[in-house]
Amino acid sequence: MHIDFIHALSANLLSPAVLFFALGIVAAVVKSDLKFPEALYVTLTVYLLTALGFKGGVAINEAGIAKVILPALAAMLLGAVIPLWTYPLLRFGGKFRPVDAAAIAAHYGSVSAVTFITATNYLKSINEPYENYATAFLAVMESPAIVVGVLLGKMTLEKQSLVFTGSGKSLLREAVFGRSVFLLVGSLLVGLACGKAGMEKVEPFFVTPFQGVLALFLLEMGLVAGQRVADLKKVGTFLLFFGILMPLGHGSLGVVIGRSVGLSLGGTTLMGVLAASASYIAAPAAMRLSLPEANPTLYLTSSLAITFPFNITVGIPVYYALAKYYFELKP
Q1: Alpha carbons 86 and 82: distance in angstroms, whole number
Q2: 28-70: per-residue pLDDT in tens?
Q3: Which domains does the chain have, with CATH numbers?
Q4: Does the model's pTM come out above 0.85?
Q5: DSSP state letters, 113-157
């Protein structure tokens, strides 16, 4: 078990995507003038989310919706309830302002698409099969936590008699029609309608270049994370430990749920990864819109500079090892 984990960790750390992420961090730390144009960052994001959603839709078409419903509902419920215990932990354990605790909780209940993609690459590198329709879990987990987190924040603001900005309608619109959610769900529906025949027509664009695009995106993410290294002093020791320990706890819970709903070892690992990940695209956009009183330094640094690097380097092999152990424990 120990040797297997070391091998798995090594395989993950030496993957092109993770190495490009590390390169981006180094570039930021040494203050290189390397910089991605905003338009390129947006283009890479659109490509990854569209390709991911489309491939997931095709997989659902082939597997049948009946196989997807139960694990998708479990994923949605998991995303919605994580903020409910994360909020009081931040509020009373970390002594954060209520609105900041709510914003951070929303990030940790929501998910990271790039962490998910990195996990699928990892599973492929160790020849571990998984359900290709797992993208559906990613799509349905994105929004519930954002809605719950914002509602928690709004309730605390109401008690403090602060003026709200935005409305329930704006919140729901951002949660459902925000860029990442819209692209994931929309392209998933397109893939579901097209099926395998549709995939054959776009495979040279959505499949072959995917790994290279992911490497470029993670290089950009490394630059952004590296620029926030200095913010670690501002967020404090509590948030540093929170950003590592909470993913481990949530990942373990995701593994148990994935196994309970009948997923394979690879699929169970992905459920654990999704539960452990923290959003840094959809959730920040929603917080800026619905909870502008929250401090961006806290929720961005915790999700992007602490949890994201931990997950894509060490966390993913850990969640796989946990899933493997759980499968051996409960065959």
Answers
A1: 6
A2: 889 999 988 888 888 988 898 888 889 888 888 888 888 889 9
A3: 2-329 (1.20.1530.20)
A4: no
A5: HHHHHHHHHHHHHTT----GGGHHHHHHHHHHHHHHHHHHHHHHH
